[in-house]
Amino acid sequence: MSRLVGVISDTHGLLRPSALAALQGCDLILHAGDVCGPEIIAALQGVQRTVFVRGNMDRPASGSPMPKTEAVEFAGKRFYVLHDLYELDLDPRAAGVDAVIHGHTHTPDITYKDDVLYLNPGSIGPKRFTLPVSMAVIRVKDDAMHPELITLPE
After folding, report:
1. Domain boundaries, the chain
2. Percent of the chain beyond pLDDT 90?
3. What pLDDT does 128 receive?
4. Out of 24, 41, 112, 142, which residue is the most buried by the measure of CB atoms under 10 Å away?
């Protein structure tokens, strides 16, 4: 059986209809920070369980503070979510992490280091410079992760 994880970051208060459509069918959504609005949280939670971390542009909301990092176990894999990769405060491999999910740069990227997946989905928020509007999905099947970057229409 295959499980699908939607990975987004840097909405900056803009949740595009194309992103919502791409997240339909996901079993879990990971948001790597710079949410910038409680309406984004509500909309995503309406699609599927969503794990959020606080980005540098997020301001603490009374009653629902977002953590700076979050460890999530799902489909037999351990995901570590944070906004800025330069603030990574652990050795992922030593901690048993399978994937580090991060954002901040708005630049989509899939990299592996020491058998750990490092995934930046880019940004689904307002267009920035020449960077694409993008997100990612990770299909977990037969104990393997298959990440894919998705470019959305502007």
Report:
1. 2-151
2. 89
3. 86
4. 41
Residues 37, 14: contact at Cβ < 8 Å? no
pTM: 0.96
Q: How confident is the model at residue 1 (pLDDT cuts 50, 70, 90)?
A: confident
